[in-house]
Write a structure and sequence with these properties.
Helices cover 75% and strands 0% of the residues. It is mostly helical and 109 residues long. It holds the Pfam family DUF3817.
């Protein structure tokens, strides 16, 4: 497996987690303090698009790492739970890094 697969997943896991935390803060401002409705809308739309990209990268990583369906589902759902993606990303990185090859195929003869 190429390192870029893991790198893409890690980047999107962090971006998705940060956007979810920002969205939670916006929701508190909107419903708790009756302010920021427009910002909440923009952040929710951005998070939705970024979450779809995260799902594609998580699926790509899980298929290349040959994970069972339950594990793939857990990794995908971690993007919906605030702060969970940080912990799941760290565990995934530790598990997948030994499978990563730095160099392309060794057919350079």
């Amino acid at each position: 497996m190429k390192r870029s697969v893991l790198t893409r997943y890690r980047a999107m896991a962090y971006v998705t987690a940060v956007m979810l935390l920002i969205l939670c803060a916006c929701m508190v401002a909107k419903y708790g303090f009756d302010t920021g409705a427009d910002l909440t809308f923009v952040v929710s739309q951005a998070h939705g698009v970024l979450f779809m990209i995260y799902l594609v990268f998580a699926f790509d990583l899980s298929s290349k790492a040959r994970w069972p369906f339950g594990k793939m589902l857990w990794v995908m759902l971690s993007g919906t739970i605030p702060v969970a993606a940080f912990f799941v990303e760290r565990k995934v990185r530790a598990e997948v890094e030994p499978l990563v090859s730095d160099s392309p195929a060794t057919a350079e003869a």
